[in-house]
Amino acid sequence: MTLKVEMITLDCEDPDELARWWAEAVDGEVTPFAPGEFVTVTRADGPILGFQRVPDPTPGKNKLHIDFTATDVEGEVKRLVGLGAHETGRHSFGEEFNWVVLADPAGNAFCIAAAG
């Protein structure tokens, strides 16, 4: 048996709004399966992103987040901040591996590191 990552789903208060933001951020297409309740963003090169309305999103730090790579990390950080994300930190393991932590407009953390 082989498992395939089909979808990564985020709990949120407004799935329509958050899906629109992520669709612009990752150049994806929004599909409102149940508008206001469950919306997806389909991407050409990765798993589907799902957004599910919940009455009380988990407080505190995410237990799961999405990691992205980019050939121009600083350019992507600037673009995503321009769309409404905010930078929450920068980290590294030595000088060889660095990444930037951002949060989407709903506060969900995600990271960007240099493409290897």
Task: Describe the model.
A hairpin with a 3-residue loop joins strand 2 (29-34) and strand 3. The strands form 2 sheets. The chain has a 4-stranded mixed sheet, covered by helices on one side. A 4-stranded mixed sheet has the order 5-8-7-6, with helices on one face. The protein has 116 residues and is α/β, with parallel strands linked by helices. The mean pLDDT is 90. 20% of the residues lie in helices and 42% in strands. It has a single domain (7-114), classed as 2,3-Dihydroxybiphenyl 1,2-Dioxygenase, domain 1 (Roll), CATH 3.10.180. The protein has 2 helices and 8 strands; from the N terminus they run βαββββαβββ. The relative contact order is 0.20. The protein starts with 6 loop residues before the first strand and ends with a strand. This is Glyoxalase. It comes from Mycolicibacterium celeriflavum. InterPro entries: Glyas_Bleomycin-R_OHBP_Dase (IPR029068), Glyoxalase_6 (IPR041581).
